[in-house]
Amino acid sequence: MIPWTILIVVYPYLTGLVAGAFTISSLYQVFGFQQLRPVAHFALLVSLCCMVVVPIPLLLHLGHPERAFNAMITPHTTSAFAIFAYAAAFYVILLILETWFVFRPQIVQTAKTTKGPLGWVYRVATLGSDDLSEKALSYDKKWLFALAIIGIPGAHGLHGYVGFVFGSLKSREWWSSDLMPVIFLFSAIISGTALVIVLYVVSCRLRKVPVDLACLKVMAYSLWGFMMFTLLLEGLEFASMVYRGREGIDVIMSFVKGPLLVPFFILQFGIGSVLPLAVITFFIWRGTSGPTLVVAITTSACLVLLAVLMMRYNVVIGGQEIAKTGKGLLAYRPPIFAREGLFVAGCVLVLPFVLLSILVRFLPPWHEAESALAKGMPSVIAH
């Protein structure tokens, strides 16, 4: 029996997108990577939308999701999943606060120029703070910097703990590894970076504005560097598992050479990791620019998203397909329309992008909105 289904695959995948997108935003907010300015606020919104959806797979997986709040009311400190409720709540609040400080000038300006119910919503969103003086904006930047610094360990700790949950389960040889939290963390960064790349390029096409190549190149360099570390760590983990030769390694090897051959070696490593890494390396080495570079990096980013999804699947489902007795393999075929089926999982994966498409209309994260605000013009709600 496979107790952790496809929804538990979606859960760590979404937390990884949160951590990776927040990393891109923090490279601008904290470390001053000015090239990432066109995408920094957008990446923050991506992180927020994904984080809001993160608990949904777990709630759907529970037989009685209404009991989820019991973990908050009656804390159980020996359970990693129970502690997650506090960590997730803290991080959602932090993201909301940081988003508010980032967009407060825009919210205030729009509240002053918009009439009707929408204007009332913006006025409520100002929380009574409508001061846009230089002193007030300087105060906002200090809070924003502090929140971004706190959010860096918060985001990465949130996803590193997911790797800890799997790596600490000694009963499963496929999971039990000291490198599991680190691998989850680095794969999270590359998945979030890849997602921001794809969404940024798509948004530029929809808004009919040129892609900022300097921004895209910095994200591509970040993706390339973190992918190198991730592949190295995954290789070390597998080599360590084989070298130790613990009980059950024969079943693991037959599993890797059999059912896991296509999803692990071909999809995750070959098509999803080695191919995009080679493509990015080649085009960076050639000094390619223009539309060709945009297409190459965007395609590579899509493949990376596939690789990380397959990595989550191979870890969560693969670890359960190896029988705990060590004497055989199980088979998992996810249903399509069941409560924990493929359709529900797909809807959960799509939901953050639905929220994002709504949020960017009310809080445009682009240069156009910033320029309009700087000139004292009404902010454009939709583009």
Describe it:
This protein has helices at 6-29, 37-53, 55-61, 70-73, 80-113, 116-125, 134-167, 180-207, 213-244, 249-257, 261-286, 291-321, 342-362, 367-374. The relative contact order is 0.15. The protein is mainly α and 383 residues long.
Short description:
This protein has 383 residues and is an all-alpha fold. The protein has 14 helices and no strands. The longest helix is centred in the first third of the chain and has 34 residues, at 80-113.
List the helices and strands and how they pair.
Elements: H1 6-29, H2 37-53, H3 55-61, H4 70-73, H5 80-113, H6 116-125, H7 134-167, H8 180-207, H9 213-244, H10 249-257, H11 261-286, H12 291-321, H13 342-362, H14 367-374
Helix pairs in contact: 1-2, 1-3, 1-7, 1-8, 1-12, 1-13, 2-5, 2-13, 5-6, 5-7, 7-8, 8-9, 8-12, 9-11, 11-12
Keywords for this entry:
globular; disordered C terminus; 383 residues; mainly alpha
Strand proportion: under 5%
Question: Which structural category fits the helices and strands?
Answer: mainly alpha
Tell how many strands the DSSP assignment holds.
0
What is the first-to-last residue Cα distance?
50 Å
* Strand/helix succession: HHHHHHHHHHHHHH
Mean pLDDT: 83
Low-confidence stretches: 377-383
Calculate Rg over CA atoms: 22 Å
Helix content: over 70%
Main beta sheet: strand number and arrangement? none
The gross shape turns out to be globular
Number of helices: 14
